[in-house]
Amino acid sequence: MNERDTVAETARRTEVFAEVDVCVLGGGPAGLAAAVAAARGGAHTLLVERYGFLGGMGTAGGVTNFAGLYGRRGGHMQMLVRGVVPELLERIAHLGGLNAPQDALQGRIRVHSYDTSAYKCAADAWLLAAGVRLLLHALAVDALCEGGRITALLVQTRSGRRAIRAREFIDASGDADLAHSAGVPHELGDGCGSVLYPSTMARIGNVDAERALAAVGDFKAIDARMAQAAGRYRFARRGAILRPQRNPSEWRANVTQIANAQGQAVDATDAQQLSDGELEGRRQLVEYLRFLRAEVPGFEQAELLEIAPQIGIRESRRIAGAYMLRGEDVLGGAHFSDVIGLNCWPVEQHVAGGIEWGFAHDADNAYNHLPWRMLVPQGVSNLLVAGRCAAMEHLGQSAARASGACFAMGQAAGSAAALRMTGRFSVAALQQQLRTDGADLDDPA
20 to 30 A Cα–Cα from 173, which one of 26, 217, 317, 367? Predict the structure, then answer.
């Protein structure tokens, strides 16, 4: 890069917005659980979020269901991610925004769908009740480091650039933004130049539910109709997922797959690719709506009610940590002595043109442990990383990126940060705190 490709910025002194015990970056499942756990552990906690609302990909990405809260143990499908999560579910349900759990893929998975507006409001109330301070509309731009520690997070706000000092930081940004700025090594994608393909999510309204359900059928039966109509429409992927929401005239559409100009998955860390991907996702939704109206009974008068505020990102940076969760750990139901939570979601690869599932070898015990070491980054002593950007290999991340595992990782990170504040941290002390707070660590019956 030569001099003409850069500009010189004026040196500045940045105003300190807050000094706290624990600063959490990101308001998705990992960040929510981390902030609540840290605050309840006695830490003065600030959560920083780029949007004006919480929920992460569950709201900004339009996911509309919690995946990976339920898994099979001892042959029985049950809720395996507990701890602080049930409180959030209760708050969403109190607002009338939570559906009954739904089984899919021949009963191998169970999801819990919700209304995104109810999720946003419930998350607000949950964090405020826990004593968490919120800073919304704040974009992380850099980290200041000294002696292997982060001294401040720099954020851009409508008031200008601000600094946040904290004794402990938790990166739950999804993209490892803070860890990357602090120099933590990371991986991106499958090692062959592609990450899991992202999707633009949408809600479709004015659907005749009875006729639509008969036409769409089971989880992926819409694929047969798409195959018959393939010559008349441009479909980006197989494995489209269309399901009714709490209001049966409104359906969730997970039908797009966003590639870059080279045909690989959009890289969410590349500004131009991300921008182009937003346009492509909306183009695909318009095309898919044309197909539904013309080809699928019950959708003749369908309309796009909402397109998610941003592309739904499944994978970007994954930090290098003390342990990298592997695909083999998921498929083989790995157990770890430093377990801090459970993952119940299968390997779910969004590859070019479709989805490839990989299920646990033991169908009666379809879960794996999440080790403490996957939250611990290399080279920065006062940082923990939770959520889809934690230390995982590509296949392991395709499973543990689901919201259930992210909630579990977040609660562990928040509890650990609070224990560090008191000088009482050890893995054993963390595990005992998690058990006290209702987390399932797969202890013998």
Answer: 367
